[in-house]
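mind reviewing both lines:
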Amino acid sequence: MTLLQAVTQAEPNQDADELAGTVSARLAYLVRRAEGLGDATAASKLAVATLWLDACETASFLGDTRTARRALRQAASALVAAGNPFGTTLRAAFLVERGTGMFVLEDEGAVLRTEGAAQAWAVFNSEGRAQWTEGLARHTFLVNGAERIGRLGWTLDEMLSVTTASPEERHGLFAARLSEQYRAVRNAQRNAYLWRRQLAPVPLFDLELAVLIRHGLGDRWGEVQSRWVAERVADPQEREFMDAYLQAVAALIQSERGNGTNVLVEERLR
C-alpha cells in the first residue's frame, strides 16, 4: 500500500483520483524545474537540491519508487557539490556502494555537538563522524546541543537517540513521530477543497525523518523493521499509514548496480 492509498482510505469521502492528479502534476513540475535549473554556483546547486528533495518526497507519497530513487540520487549529488553534508548522509543511508553500508553511530557518551543544522547531519555518515571526532579531540565544535534542527525540530541529542537508545525506546520514538504525521494529514483532510488541491501545508513524507528511521529501524540487511507498529497503535487506519510510511522509506534503499541486496550495516549490538 502506498501513502496515497493509506491517506485516501482513511478518508473515503475524499476524491482519491483528484488528489493523485494534483500530486502527480506537482511531481512533474518539480522534476522539470530541477532539470531546467542551472547549477553553476553553490547557491543554485542548493536550489536544485531543494527541488529534487521535494520531488523525492512527493514521489515517495505517490509510490513512484523509480522517480523517488532518481530524485534522491540527484538531490544527494547536488548537496554534495554544494558542500552540504546532508548529501553524504543521504548516500550513506540509502545509496549503498560496493564494500560500504549504512553508517550507524556507536554510543559515544552523547558528547557530540555540531555547528548548525546542516552540519548536524554529518554525524550520520562516516566522513562526518571522523571530522567531528577529530574536532572533539581539539575541544572544538562543542556548542549548545539544544539547538532545534531541520523541519523535524529535534535537538542533536534526540537525533542521536535513534542509534543509542534501546530498541524499545526507538520504537516508541518513531511511533510517536509517525502518529504526529498521521494526525497532521487527518487535520488537513478536514478542508476537502484545500486538501484535494494540496494548498494546505501538510507533511506528506519527510526525508529527514526517513534518514532517522533508516538508522533507527534498519537491520543488517537493509530492511526497515515495522513489526512494532501493531503493538503500539490501536487504530487500523493509523497502522496502515505507519506501515505505508515505513515501506516508502524502505523503497528508497538502493545498492550499487550488480551488488545484490545484501547490505551490511555497522551497528552496535542491540
In short: Confidence is low (pLDDT under 50) at residues 98-113, 136-144, 257-270. The chain is about 60% helix and 0% strand.
